[in-house]
Amino acid sequence: MRLSYPSNVKVVKLPCTGRVDVLLILRAFESGVDGVYVAGCMEGECHFLRGNLRARRRVEYVKGLLEEVGLGGGRVEMFNMSASQGQRFAQFAREMTERIRLLGPSPVRK
Amino acid sequence: MIVGNRKDFKEILEKLGPRRRVLVLGCNECVTVCGVGGEREVGVLASELRLFWKKEGETFEVREHTLERQCDCEYIDQIRGFADEYDVILSMACGAGVQYVSEAYKTKLVLPAVNTTFLGVTIEQGVWSERCQGCGACILDMTAGVCPIARCAKSLLNGPCGGSSGGKCEIDNETDCAWQLIVDRLKESGQMERYEEILPVKDWRSGREGGPRKRVREDLKL
Predict the structure, then answer these.
(1) Closest CA to B97 of B22, B18, B11, B4
(2) Which residues of chain A lie closer than 8 angstroms to B10, CB-CB?
(3) What residue numbers bound the domain in which B181 lies?
(4) In the predicted model, what is the mean pLDDT of chain A?
(5) How far is B186 from B197, CA to CA, in rounded Å?
(6) Is B142 contained in some domain?
(7) pLDDT > 70 fraction of chain A, expressed in percent and rounded
(8) B90 and B11 share a domain?
């Protein structure tokens, strides 16, 4: 497809978004990233049945934590796409990059 | 198990005040199982503190440590080597753990990060429900294994009251009426004749009303 997406996006590969843990996302923010998004399979199509649904709940939980510490819940998001939707992957990468650009750099990275 | 809720981050920050060297101390027992004060939750709270103070541009030191239990002195002793390096111990155990750590480290400020709420069970992953109030005089034999002290909003010994409707309690329609559960179970187990027995007024001296409680077993003493 030769699609391009913003080069600032660093991809961390996991076997399933069900592996996404609250601490994993928090550690990313501690290391100074400006935003995190989880790219999971379409809801209802998880190979492990509920991995992406559980990931979504964890992302929602982290949103609350980030609000508490003053980073803002908007810096973390969950997106769903199938493995064949490269266009959608690139689109979300652009959307999230734009959102984070508007929010500015993470206040943790001073 | 003992179930609790994590205190709001804002409240924890207020209690910490200007102290920036913090030992976040978890407990591997009940609070781990109910997802409030185990190693993972210690990691989350420590991470929140680091993110907040980094954002504020402050200098700080946060250490994460989780004990097997905070209600036994041999485990509490395990932090003796480094507890003094911190301004405050932020305990994520139940109220018993917080107090026992505080007793062991009299010169240290020990703060609770958890509100201890009840003795309960795991209904499903992520859901816990109250089952016992530790009244000190168990009557579960009389009530088909359902405790009206802990599970009836009025702790009625002879129920249900007029607030029972469709098997639910009047306090909210998601709370089961304990006495409906008792009657159902008495029927299921063929003990309905027990429902005719009027339970006498309870002697609450075995509970909290009798003051702080203590248990001694001489044969176990060293």
Answers:
(1) B4
(2) 68
(3) 135-206
(4) 96
(5) 12
(6) yes
(7) 99
(8) yes
pLDDT tens, residue by residue, B184-204:
999 999 999 999 999 999 999
Q: Are B26 and B87 within one domain?
A: yes
State both tokens at B168: 């639910």
On the question of pLDDT at A1 being above 80, the answer is no
Do residue B34 and residue B103 come from a single domain?
A: yes
For B170-196, the DSSP string reads: TTEEEEEPHHHHHHHHHHHTT-GGGGG
Residue B216 lies in a domain: no
Range of the domain at A44: 17-83
Categorize the per-residue pLDDT at A2 as very low, low, confident or very high, splitting at 50, 70 and 90.
confident
Could you tell me if residue A105 is inside a domain?
A: no
pLDDT number for residue B209: 87
Residue A66 lies in a domain: yes
CA dihedral of residues B34, B39, B44, B46 (deg, nearest 10): 130
Last residue of a domain, one of B87, B118, B149: B118
Number of domains in chain B: 2
B59 sits in the region (left: phi over 0; alpha: psi -120 to 50; else beta) called beta
Contact assignment for B40 to A23 by CB distance below 8 Å: yes
Helix (H) or strand (E) holding B2: strand B2-6
Q: Residues of B near A (CB-CB distance < 8 A)?
A: 8-10, 40, 43-44, 47-48, 50-52, 54-55, 57
**pLDDT per residue over B47-72, tens digit each?**
999 999 999 999 999 999 999 999 99
For tokens 């109030």, name the residue: B133
Q: Do A65 and B40 touch (CB under 8 A)?
A: no
Mean pLDDT over B147-160 rounds to 97
- Amino acid (one-letter) located at B200: P
Closest-CA residue of B relative to A107 is: B55
- As separate numbers, helices (DSSP H) first and strands (DSSP E) second, chain A gives 3, 2
Q: Is residue A56, in this structure, part of any structural domain at all?
A: yes
- Domain co-membership, B59 together with B105: yes
